[in-house]
């Protein structure tokens, strides 16, 4: 027996309860100690304490205790993980795995926040605060409405979007039996022929430059020049220049006060929780330099979204309905007059 195996065997013996009892080491854990350790929460709700918390209370706690790392709207700060968005990103080269895009069970959210958050001050949140934060995270991922209250009674009824894409690990039954038997060593082929390469099968991720290089090499072999990709044309919306009613501008300025917590306009405007809105009307979406847009808005921008009066009004009416996965948690402007006024006000900042 090797020296390593001897040491490993000795450690197993020494760490056994029988050996510890023989040396009068340790004692049996009390019921209270076991209860303090046994705090995990399961998908069916087992282990959940009684309590509740709503979206609005969760926003307050999240802003105070979590936003410094994860952003006010779960968009992430620096290299900390994003907690919202990521819809439709799991098939991309860099998926954004969030509650709304990846996680299968809500119990994982509650359990992790309760057990390990906030960073540096774990288990300092009350049960009601954990319920409230979880409710707010559901809201940020457009899974519940702003008046939603999460409790131990309705917890098990929440189903996350990606739950159906997870399945039990059956490798022990399926793969182990197939690959653990004796290898076949008869009727072997005399030679091996490569019929396909991984890059051609789209198994290996490849970037644009690598693809273009491969096409150029293949074209050189065939004696052809590679076809140039057609340039992407960005449609600029034409905005009509018209006289604006001063009263409407004044009304729009008043309405814009609801937006000022996140957005700025004017010569000294800077990006905050939201981007600068100078010249937004009639411009392609996602065009402000230096601002980190949500994946949802970036995808819409790639599809050619332009902030025309009509689209901007529809977005302002109910942001999360117009653009699923947006980081903007604002409930929306229900009044058509308010939306028209604030759009007119934004037009005055080019």
Question: How does the SSE layout of this entry go?
Answer:
Layout: H1 3-15, H2 17-22, H3 31-37, E1 52-54, H4 55-65, H5 67-70, H6 106-116, H7 127-140, E2 149-151, H8 171-179, H9 208-222, H10 246-256, H11 295-302, H12 309-317, H13 319-322, H14 336-347
Antiparallel strand pairs: 1-2
What features would you describe in this structure?
This protein is mostly helical. The protein has three domains: 3-29, no CATH class; 42-165, Cytochrome c-like domain (Cytochrome Bc1 Complex, Chain D, domain 2), CATH 1.10.760.10; 246-347, Orthogonal Bundle (Cytochrome Bc1 Complex, Chain D, domain 2). The chain has 14 helices and two strands; from the N terminus they run H-H-H-E-H-H-H-H-E-H-H-H-H-H-H-H. It has helices spanning 3-15, 17-22, 31-37, 55-65, 67-70, 106-116, 127-140, 171-179, 208-222, 246-256, 295-302, 309-317, 319-322, 336-347, and strands spanning 52-54, 149-151. It has a two-stranded antiparallel sheet with strand order 1-2. Helix 6 (106-116) packs across helix 7 (127-140). Mean pLDDT is 83; it is low at 234-241.
